[in-house]
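hi! just following up on the protien thing from before. the input was this:
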Amino acid sequence: MKIASNVGLSLRSNTIIVLSYIFALSIVYSTGFTQTSGTKINTFFAQMEDVGKTVNTLKADYTQKIFFISTQEKQESSGTLFLKKPTSIYIQQRVPQERHLYIDAKNITIYTPENEQAVIDSLNNIFNDDFVPATIINLGNNWRKIKKTNLISLIEDSEKHTVITITPVENKNCSIKIYISKTNMYPIKATAESEGVISEIIFRNYVINPAFDKNIFKFNVPDNVEIIKLN
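and the predicted 3d structure came back as:
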């Protein structure tokens, strides 16, 4: 078995984007957040809720930068994200190495063609439980738990975007900021810091409600690929 020594690091770094994007979409496309305290933020979430009702599928390009504080290592990647409500996400990373990420409500599969390997793990094994990714992946259906375990506030309101900050109640060392465009109410950037990892993700070239091939979110295992199950 040719498991690379940095499988854990690879999973961690390649799924930072998943965490950030899931948070962004769970806020933007959730229902019920209008009950959040504060008239201004209530109005804002109500507007996002109206936008979210029109979105069933989504495609967006991304550029991601990750900085590991302890090692001073920097990583950059880019690709395209595909989403289908309620629980399907496929990420096609093209730079710096081809990777395919398949995410559902419970698991993540990372397929690296160059290594002829596919690593499968539980989302809960990858991220700190403060961010409850298995709950958030459901795109707003479990919004009450998000609100219960995280502090959510509107921290900035400029001409171009509104910024939402999310901090776990039990772990103030983790945080995420989501920049929402005032033009279309979509997330344009997310920054996250958790467990010594700082990431920045830029989203662009949105396509709303595109038609996808029905198999795009399913990993069809090639004959020469080794499957590594970590969960």
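The helical segments are 7-14, 16-28, 39-52, 123-126, 133-136, 143-149.
The domain at 7-150+193-229 is CATH 2.50.20.10 (outer membrane lipoprotein receptor (LolB), chain A).
cheers
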